[in-house]
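Newbie here. four chains, one complex. Structure please?
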Amino acid sequence: MTTSLRELVAHIESGMSVAVPTDYSGVAMSAIREIIRQDIKKLHLIGVPTCGLQAELLIGAGAVEVFESSALTLGEYNPAPCFSRAVKNSTIKLIDATCPAIHAALQASQKGIPFMPLRGIIGSDLLNHHPNWKTIQNPLAEQEDPIVIIPAIKPDFALFHAPLVDEHGNVWVGRRKELVTMSQASRGALVTAEKLYEGNLLEDEKLAAGTLPSLYVTASAVTPNGSWPLSFWHGRDEDSEHLKLYCKMAKTEEGFREYLDQFVFQEVSQ
Amino acid sequence: MTTSLRELVAHIESGMSVAVPTDYSGVAMSAIREIIRQDIKKLHLIGVPTCGLQAELLIGAGAVEVFESSALTLGEYNPAPCFSRAVKNSTIKLIDATCPAIHAALQASQKGIPFMPLRGIIGSDLLNHHPNWKTIQNPLAEQEDPIVIIPAIKPDFALFHAPLVDEHGNVWVGRRKELVTMSQASRGALVTAEKLYEGNLLEDEKLAAGTLPSLYVTASAVTPNGSWPLSFWHGRDEDSEHLKLYCKMAKTEEGFREYLDQFVFQEVSQ
Amino acid sequence: MTDINTKIELICFIANLLKDTNHVAVGAASPIPGAAALLAKEVYGSPRHVNILGSVKNNFFTNGAQELFDCAAQGRIDAFFLSGGQIDGSANINLMGVGDYPTNSPRWSGTFGSAYLYFLIPKVILFREEHSRRVLVDKVDFISAPGASEDNIYRTGGPYGLLTNKAFFKFNKQTRRFSLQSIHEGSSLEDILNNTGFSFDYQPNTPQTVLSSQKMRQTLQQNTRPKIEEVYPQFARTLFANTEQTS
Amino acid sequence: MTDINTKIELICFIANLLKDTNHVAVGAASPIPGAAALLAKEVYGSPRHVNILGSVKNNFFTNGAQELFDCAAQGRIDAFFLSGGQIDGSANINLMGVGDYPTNSPRWSGTFGSAYLYFLIPKVILFREEHSRRVLVDKVDFISAPGASEDNIYRTGGPYGLLTNKAFFKFNKQTRRFSLQSIHEGSSLEDILNNTGFSFDYQPNTPQTVLSSQKMRQTLQQNTRPKIEEVYPQFARTLFANTEQTS
C-alpha cells in the first residue's frame, strides 16, 4: 500500500493548496525537495500554524504563489533569506494570520462548517489585511460584542512526516493531533514515514489512540530520515551544520541556486 | 493524588451541571450511585451525546432537574421505565438535542467561543423546542443560506470512568477523545479509573497520545469495576442478568425504590 | 419464508444497495445493516471501509465520538442507516415519541444523530422490519429529521429508499414521495396497501423482490460469518443456527 | 554586571513575578522565561504546571498544537511571555516587520499566536532584552497585537509589564501607559529616558531593581539546573559556565 516518494509527490499538481505542519510536528523535507524536482509551481502553501525551512525552500525555488501562515521562522537561523527577498520584491502573495486562526480554519473544514468564530484579533492590523476574515456581532449577545469569524480552509492535501505507517495506510502521529486535523480538513493526506509498522496500528489500543486512519490518507511512503535537515520529534536532532551552510549559501540568489543544484537536484528521487 | 469515591463525588453540589458520556465511552456507575447516596439534587445532566442507565437511575432517584441529551437509551433493555414516567409526568425538564450539536456545544466551550455553527437540523422539530439554538444567515454567503448556531455548554464537571490514572492525576482515555473534549469544556473533570498506572502516563509517548493531562482533572479515584453493571470498553462485559433484573424491578415506582434500597443505599461508600 | 430466511434476504438485499459505496457507517444496534455492509465488502470489495459504531474492534475512528459527524460533513461517508418509531410518506422520521412533545407517551429514546446525518450522507437507507400502519404513518407526530428540504438549505444527503420486511421503496426527491420498487416473497400489493399509512406511487405490476443468489448466501455463510460473529455474537447465533435451511 | 549575571538576575526577577500563578506556558525559543518558570516552580511550588512549547519532554499538552490556544481561552493559562521587534508605549507589539505591510524590510517572522493569546492570558509579560529606541518605539509600524482594547471587546488578558535588560515597567490598563517600576543595576533613569522611544510615567526617585537573593541563585544552580539543561542545553551551558561567578 505504501508508494515511492516520487509517486507520493506526483499527487500534487501545480496550483494546488497544500497544508504543511510547523517544524516540531514533523516536516516532510524529502517530499519538499521532490516537489522542487518535479517542478510543481503556483502552490498555495498553508503553514499550520507556522512554517520554516520547507516554505523558505519552496519560496526560493519559485514554487509558491500564495503563502498563508502565522509566521515563517528558521528559529535561531533567522532571518530566512529567500522569504525576506520574496516579501521585499512582492514575488509571493502573503496571507498573514495568527496561529489559532489557522487551526480554527482547518477545524471548520474538518467539521464541514463554513466558519468558526474566534476571540481576540480585533485591533490587530492582521484584520485589516486578511482577505477572508470578517467581524460580526455575536448573534447570541444582547450587548455589543464583535467577534471575528474565520472561514474554513480546505486544502487539497496535507503533507507531513510521521513516525510510523502500516501496510493498510494507517499513520501513527502520536500526540500531534494537528496532523489529524490537517488531514481530515484536506481532500487527502500525503505522508512520509520514518518506518513501516508491521501489523495494523488500529489493533493495538495504545497505538490506535494516536493513529490517523487510512480513510484520510491518499498515499504514504516510507522515507527514513525524511525530515532532514530538520529535527524530528520522534527521533533525530537537526543537522545544525547543514542549516548553517544553508543560511550562508542562501544569502544571495546565486548562492541559493547553487544550494538547490547541490542538495536538491543532485539528490536522487526515490 | 487519587482520592476516595466519596470525596470525588463530594465535589458535586446540588444544582450543578454534570456532563457524562454515553455507554460505550466509560460510565462511572459507582459514582452515579454515590451521587444518589449523597442526596445531591437538581442536577443539570448532559448526556454526551446520549445517555443510558446512569441518567435513568439519577432521574428515578429524583436527582435531575434538567436532562439535556440526544437520547436516553438502555439499548436492548428499552424502554427506560423511570425516564418514561418522568417524561409522561413532566417531572424533569427536557432539552432534546442531536448528537453532533452536543459535541459542538462542548467544543465551543473547549475553544472558549460563544457558539459553533452546525449544518443540518433545519426542518427538525428539535429546533422549535430547543431553548438556546438559533438560526442565522451564514455571514459569509451571498445567497440565502440559513445555518443553526449552537451556544457553548460549559458544565461544572465532566464525570466518567477511564482505564488508567497515574499518581499525578493524568488519565488515560485512549481513543475516547470525547472525554478530553468534555473535560476541557468543563470547569473540571471527576474521574473514576479501573486501575492505578505506576509511573507517569505522559512519559510514554504511546500512552501520552491518549492521555488527559492532570491540569484538567479536579479529582480521580481508583474504582475497579467502576462501570458495573454496564460494560466497559477497556475490560468488562455488561452484567446482563442485573440489567434484566433492573428493568423488571423498575417497572413500578415501588419496585424502583426497592432497587435503590438494595443496590444503591446498601452499597458501602468507598 | 422463515424469520431467519427473511433476515438473510434482507442482508443480501442491502448488500446489493451498498456495492457502489466506499465507506459505510453502521449504528451500534443494527445487526442486519452491519452484516450487509460486511457482506458487500466481502463480495464486491466495496465498500472498502465498514465502520460499526459502538464496537471497539470494528470501528476505525480514533478521534472520539465526534469523528462520525465530522466525517459525514467531510463527505467521507457514503451510506448510513436510519430507522424510526414513525416514518411518513415524505420520509420524515420520528424517533422522539407518540403524541405531543415534550410529554410523549410512549417516549422513545430520542433523535440521536439523525437530525444531522440525514442531511449529510448521500445514501441514507431507512430500514425498519415492521411494516404496519402504526409505523408507516401519514404524518409523523414529531419530525426528528425531515426527509426533504427547501433548495436554500445546505443538504448533501438524504433518504435513498425504505426497506421493510414486506417491500422496498425508493424515495423521489423531486416529488417527495416514495415509490414502490419491489414486493418481498410472501407479501402482495394489496398487503402493502393495507399496511402502509401513507400514500405512495406504484405500478400495478410491481415486481417481486429478486431473491438472493445462492452464491451470495454461501459467501455470507462461509466468509462473512466469522466477522458477523465478532461484532454481533448473539445475532450470529440466531442467524446461523440452522445452516442447512439457508443454503 | 557580566552578561551571565544579568541573565541570572532576569531569571530570578521573572520567577518572582510568577509565584501567584498555577500554569505558565512558555514559547519554544524563550530560555530565560522558561528557566524562570522552572525556578518559580522549584522555589514557590507555584506555578504547579509549566509547559514549554515545542519541547517533547516538558510539554504536557496531548491534544495537538491547538491545545495551547484552547487552554488559554478556557482561562487555564495564567501567564505567558510575548516579545516584539517593536513595542510601543501603549503596549502594542509588532512581530511583522519595519515599514509598510506587506513589503516590510526587514520582514520578521510574523505574528504567531500573539493576536490571540494577548487577549486571553491574564498575565502577559513583555520580555525583550534589548532596551533601545529601535525596539521601544513611540508607535509600532504594524500592530500584531494591541496592548489594550475598547470596553466592548471580549478581553480577559493583556500586558502585565515590560522587562528589559535595563528596567521593569508595569502597564496601567486605565491610562494605557507604562510606568517605570525599577531600574536594574548598571542603568539609570537618564539612561532609560535616553533609550526609550515612548513616553512613560515615572518617579524621579525610581528605585533600583532588588537583586536576587543568594538562596534563590543557589536553588537555580543546584535544583533547577538539571531541568534547564534538559530543555535548553545550549543556554544552560552558557549560563552555568562559571558557577563561581554567580553565587
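Moderator note: Chain D has a mean pLDDT of 94. Chains D and C do not touch (no CB pair under 8 Å). Thread marked as resolved.
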